[in-house]
Design goal:
The complex is a heterodimer.
Chain A: H1 4-21, H2 30-33, E1 37-47, E2 53-63, E3 67-71, H3 78-85, E4 93-97, E5 108-111, H4 123-134, H5 138-151, H6 167-179, E6 185-189, H7 197-214, E7 217-222, H8 225-231, E8 234-239, E9 244-250, H9 259-262, H10 265-283
Helix pairs in contact in A: 1-10, 4-5, 4-6, 5-6, 8-10
Chain B: H1 22-45, H2 56-65, H3 67-101, H4 103-118, H5 121-131, H6 135-160, H7 164-172, H8 177-217, H9 224-233, H10 237-266
Helix pairs in contact in B: 2-10, 3-4, 3-6, 3-8, 3-9, 4-6, 5-6, 5-8, 6-8, 8-9, 8-10, 9-10
Classes of the chains: A alpha/beta, B mainly alpha.
The structure holds adenosine-5'-triphosphate and magnesium ion.
Chain lengths: 284, 278
């Protein structure tokens, strides 16, 4: 709320600074002053078996408890980065460190672009899946799953099968499942891309509310400028071929993000800044 | 927001069945009756002798008159069929789980499963009957060879086409191989397995009959195929048709039973078992 020109200015400076720094492997200035990052990517590179260089030399620190968006054109390696952070895809070079948990990855939650539910299980059993895999007893895991379903507003649909739910409701189940283990870090890969705008806005608000109450670290992949600005404290813009960091923009926005913010001039200005950065990233 | 569509008492039913099911039962029934009527009429009108083509009425009469012998043979054939299907299911399931655990195992053994499948059972049945002392056991082996491939190939495809994201999810939560198999791969492969099972049901009957023919030509065995051979020798054509009718009925019954099993197992979630009108 420091006014539009101020925040745009900061963003610009930040952007250039980061481009210059992206070749280094030294920790960025940010973590010497701010709180310790929950995860630190250093020179992260991924080359797929078919020779595609999906990501090259990516340095990124993610502050504990922050909401960070990864924004970039299609094919710039956003999903690849997320999958590497989740440990689902091996790195070709570089490293991913988890400084806070003595190097071991903390509990992670992952939300895919599709709801990715098991169609043969009811909503509550889908949500309880991670607990079941951990060996939590049935009564306890159902209690916790029910709690999560309440949180995402689906208490009445605990015993419905995924096919009996709408697209937005399925996505909520998917988010509930990701949160049921109370993860420290929630990774989301374009979770709302397939939804209509009304549903998307509502789920944006739900997600923010959850983040405010639970304070996990959120890494949110999106290709929507508007969504990234609305949700995050920081937008990381990536460029393609090879996938790399292009700009790192803090989003100075009110603590309370709601429909008023969505229609404010501040929001419009921030979107313009991020949009411009994205455009430059696509030309770069 | 729709209530579960199998909530009881919520929809109209005619004689206990939803209205949409009736055409599926009535249409084939009407066609069958017309065909049988036409057949009976033609046999009578052209005065076809019963040793060339008996009419449905004569066949039905023979079926009733010879029921003691025929039902015994039916029991023998069905026993082999059901046993073969059970063994084929168990072996097929086990084999496809083995295949899905290791690409190497699949690469090594799938060609042999295929070989077993494409070799005509009539060609190997005499050998099996010679090698295996027990006639029941050799019939069972023949029927099993014919029946097991659809279960193996379908289930293997099912196990290998599990949703990638769900597999990743299981990996993310550190699921063991066993957990992934039991909670993800097997349930996901269930529709494929059941489709294979329905084919195998019919094939195990065919396998049993073919093996009985081969064995029956040597005078051993007492199943329906043997009755057909015997009736042929004795020119008791109506009895031959009666035995044939029993085989067809059994086949249809096996198919319906397996379809019912499949429907009951999938009705809560799989597209193939859902009603379209929602
Ligand atoms: N499994 C794979 N094998 C080979 N190449 C891959 C694989 N997955 C992704 N790629 C390639 O890596 C690059 C980055 O892909 P990635 O899916 O990470 O992009 P993305 O930024 O998530 O794109 P989108 O916004 O469309 O989801 C692309 O060029 C893609 O073709
Ligand atoms: Mg992607």
């Amino acid at each position: 709320m420091t006014g539009r020109p101020g925040s745009a200015e900061t963003a610009g400076v930040q952007e250039d600074g980061t481009i210059a720094a992206s070749g280094h492997t030294a920790p960025s200035r940010e973590d010497s002053t701010g709180p310790a990052p929950v995860v630190a990517l250093r020179g992260v590179t991924k080359r797929y078996g078919n020779g595609t260089l999906a990501v090259q030399g990516l340095d990124l620190d993610i502050t504990t408890g922050s909401f960070v968006s990864l924004l970039g054109p299609s094919g710039c390696g956003k999903s690849t980065v997320l999958r590497m952070v989740a440990g689902l895809s091996p790195l070709t070079a570089g490293g991913i460190a988890w400084p806070r948990a003595a190097g071991r990855p903390p509990k992670l939650g992952f939300v895919f672009q599709e709801p990715t539910l098991m169609p043969w299980k009811t909503a509550i059993d889908n949500v309880a899946l991670p607990l079941r895999l951990e060996g939590v007893a049935k009564a306890e895991r159902h209690r916790r799953a029910r709690e999560m379903l309440d949180l995402v507003g689906l208490s009445d649909f605990a015993n419905s099968y995924p096919r009996e739910l709408s697209g937005g409701m399925r996505m909520r189940v998917s988010i509930a499942r990701a949160l049921v283990t109370e993860p420290e870090v929630l990774l989301l890969d374009e979770p709302f891309a397939a939804l209509d705008e009304i549903t998307r806005f509502r789920l944006n608000n739900d997600l923010l509310r959850l983040w405010e109450s639970r304070r996990f670290t959120a890494v949110f992949v999106t290709h929507s400028v508007f969504e990234s600005v609305y949700l995050s404290q920081r937008v990381v813009v990536m460029a393609a071929n090879p996938g790399r960091l292009h700009a790192d923009l803090p989003i100075a926005a009110p603590a309370r993000r709601d429909e008023a913010f969505r229609t404010s001039p501040d929001y419009a200005a921030l979107c313009r800044t991020v949009s411009e950065a994205l455009e430059r990233a696509m030309k770069a | 927001m729709t209530p579960p569509d199998d909530a009881p008492g919520r929809e109209r039913r005619i004689l206990g069945l939803p209205p949409g099911t009736w055409p599926r039962i009535l249409a084939p029934l009407v066609v069958g009756l017309l065909l049988l009527g036409g057949w009976e009429w033609a046999v009578r009108h052209f005065a076809v002798p019963a040793y060339i083509l008996p009419g449905p009425v004569a066949i039905a009469r023979t079926l009733v008159a010879d029921w003691p012998t025929l039902s015994g043979s039916l029991a023998v054939t069905l026993r082999i069929t059901v046993l073969a299907l059970l063994v084929a299911t168990a072996a097929g399931l086990a084999l496809s789980i083995l295949f899905s655990q290791s690409k190497w195992v699949e690469m090594t053994f799938l060609p042999y499963a295929v070989m077993l499948q494409v070799t005509p059972v009539v060609a190997i049945a005499p050998l099996i009957i010679i090698w295996v002392d027990n006639i029941q056991a050799s019939l069972l082996i023949c029927a099993w060879i014919v029946a097991f491939f659809p279960v193996v190939s379908n289930t293997t495809i099912g196990l290998n086409s599990t949703d990638r994201n769900l597999l990743d999810l299981f990996r993310l939560y550190g699921a063991t191989r066993w957990q992934t198999l039991v909670h993800l791969r097997l349930p996901a492969a269930m529709p494929f397995f059941l489709a294979g099972l329905r084919i195998s049901g019919g094939l195990s009957l065919i396998g049993a009959i073919v093996a009985e023919f081969v064995a029956g030509a040597g005078g051993a065995s007492s199943g329906l195929a043997y009755r057909i051979l015997e009736s042929g020798y004795q020119l008791q054509i109506p009895r031959m048709f009666a035995a044939l009718a029993l085989i067809s009925f059994s086949g249809v019954l096996i198919f319906l039973a397996l379809s019912l099993v499949s429907h009951l197992m999938l009705r809560r979630w799989h597209e193939s078992a859902l009603r379209k009108d929602h």
